[in-house]
Design goal:
The longest helix is centred in the C-terminal third of the chain and has 33 residues. Helix content is 65%, strand content 2%. It is built from ten helices and two strands. The chain starts with a helix and ends with a helix.
């Protein structure tokens, strides 16, 4: 009933036909069991344990980065560096699965995903090296960080910082691993297990974003840097809002796409059945989730990071980054 009211039938047929041609025969794929079961002898629900470890690591990094003592903050940066190297190690391990060489192709844009993944892994490697250098410098600091739980006039409080960095770490983690999820062929034995991790973290990010929005209502966000030009303030505000929209839109479109495709979703060991009837409309939602939003993330997140680095290193606004960390 919900899907029938969203798009008129005649219009939906035209869109579906056009997207089916553009995105190759996605609609022809049957909603069959996703993959064979886990090999016998493996630890039950090991995929949920991996998801727990990833989420706890993100929280631990976020907590350490904003600890009162500088040595703990250095430990947080060091753990963030190790996390980057863990992504590289995961990718190296995935090379033996054959997914990178023979990915699932649903659209012409999928042909670029292996190269895109290689580039992101290179960024992770360079990022890990840079974080090691930063951690080494932090070890020599002696200044303690005094933070209240609530936001202050010129900087964010501890709650906002931990929510921000936990979400950011998980979101960045999902960029390469999310691409890999869309590349896994249907007959891979680990497809279901991998999707448990992918969807669990996706729902966790959604929950963290909602929590952050609620906290922003309870504790007013600091004003933007007074040193910013009016044009820069407007741009920073728009990028910030767009990031929130994207972080909500990606898990929502993924959840709806999955349901319309007659696949279940997962939250740790909880299997969530589809909440919508099977429909070819999943192609439309997949277009947003796998392609449009994915490339929008690169633009907006890149602008956010470049803007922060510009204010810190070029404009010499040393307090800009310290509003959210350190």
């Amino acid at each position: 009933m919900i899907t029938q009211n969203v798009i008129p039938k005649a219009f939906k047929r035209r869109i579906t036909l056009g997207l089916s041609i553009a995105l190759l025969p996605m609609a022809a794929q049957a909603a069959s069991p996703v993959s064979p079961s886990t090999p016998e002898g493996w630890l039950p629900h090991f995929e949920s344990l991996i998801a727990v470890m990833i989420i706890l690591t993100a929280f631990l990094v976020a907590w350490l980065l904003n600890h009162q003592r500088p040595k703990f903050r250095a430990s947080g940066t060091f753990l963030a560096a190790l996390s980057c190297f863990a992504i590289v190690a995961w990718f190296v391990g995935s090379l033996g699965t054959g997914v990178i060489e023979n990915p699932k192709i649903q659209a012409p844009m999928d042909l670029a995903k292996p190269a895109l993944l290689w580039m992101q892994i290179l960024v992770a490697l360079l990022g890990g090296i840079a974080l090691l250098l930063i951690a080494n410098g932090q070890r020599k600091q002696t200044e303690e960080l005094e933070l209240s739980a609530r936001n202050e006039t010129g900087r964010y409080g501890r709650v906002s910082r931990i929510l921000h960095w936990t979400t950011a770490i998980l979101f960045i983690f999902m960029i390469p691993t999310g691409i890999f999820a869309s590349m896994i062929p249907e007959n891979m034995w680990f497809r279901t297990e991998y999707n448990v991790i992918h969807k669990t973290i996706g729902l966790t990010i959604f929950g963290l974003v909602v929590a952050r929005l609620i906290w922003n209502r309870m504790s007013k966000r600091p004003e933007l840097e007074a040193s910013l030009k009016p044009k820069e303030r407007k741009l920073a505000h728009r990028v910030h809002i767009l990031l929130y929209v994207i972080m909500v839109a990606i898990p929502v479109t993924g959840y709806v796409m999955t349901s319309l495709h007659a696949y279940p979703s997962y939250f740790f060991t909880l299997k969530i059945p589809p909440f919508l009837p099977e429909s070819d409309s999943y192609i439309i939602w997949g277009l947003f989730h796998k392609y449009l939003l994915q490339y929008l993330v690169y633009i907006v997140l890149g602008a956010h990071i470049i803007g922060a680095l510009k204010h810190h290193f070029i404009d010499k606004h040393k307090t800009a980054i310290k509003r959210m960390v350190g």
